[in-house]
Amino acid sequence: MRFVVLVKASKESEAGVLPTTRQLTEMGAFNETLAKDGVLLAGEGLRPSSTGARLRFDGGRTTVTDGPFAETKELVAGFWIVQGKSREEVIERFTHAPFSGGEEIEIRPIYETEDFGDSLTPELRAQEERMRVQA
């Protein structure tokens, strides 16, 4: 199973405050363990929402709103994509993440092709497989 682990934004991350050398070292060691264990698929930090945009789709009309976005509790500052046998396994791994200042992370399973049942036709399944190979 694949999971996304979302790191919630903070006032500091939204202000563009970068991690210290110590924080980068600790996170690098944590990420290296995930990679050595074969569970890390991707992981990145995100720039502040002031550099981003939101798109809203409504009845054929698209509205673009430039950042920053007001509510930091609803923003993401970074992510990992990992694989694990279960939600509990991933939770256990991330209890050891090098956070200690009130940070919050969210762990959510990623849909797999088999989750879509008959709605994912053989043609759509083939399309998905082609895209994964290209990526």
Q: Could you tell me how far the N terminus lies from the C terminus, measured between alpha carbons in angstroms?
A: 19 Å
Q: Which sequence of SSEs, written as H and E, runs from N to C?
A: EHHEEEEHEH
- CATH homologous superfamily name? Dimeric alpha+beta barrel
**What portion of residues is helical?**
25-40%
Biggest sheet descriptor: 4 strands, antiparallel
Structural class: alpha+beta
Shape: flat
Low-confidence parts, pLDDT < 50 over ≥5 residues?
A: none
Q: How many individual helices?
A: 4
Description:
The chain has one domain: 2-Layer Sandwich (Alpha-Beta Plaits). Helices cover 30% and strands 28% of the residues. The protein has a four-stranded antiparallel sheet, covered by helices on one side. Strands 3-4 form a two-stranded antiparallel sheet. A hairpin with a 2-residue loop joins β3 and β4.
Features:
135 residues; alpha+beta; Alpha-Beta Plaits; four-stranded antiparallel β-sheet; two-stranded antiparallel ribbon; 6 strands; 30% helix; flat
In short:
The protein is built from four helices and six strands; from the N terminus they run βααββββαβα. It has helices at residues 11-14, 21-36, 87-94, 122-134; strands spanning 2-8, 40-45, 53-58, 61-66, 76-83, 105-109.
Secondary-structure map:
Layout: E1 2-8, H1 11-14, H2 21-36, E2 40-45, E3 53-58, E4 61-66, E5 76-83, H3 87-94, E6 105-109, H4 122-134
Antiparallel strand pairs: 1-5, 1-6, 2-5, 3-4
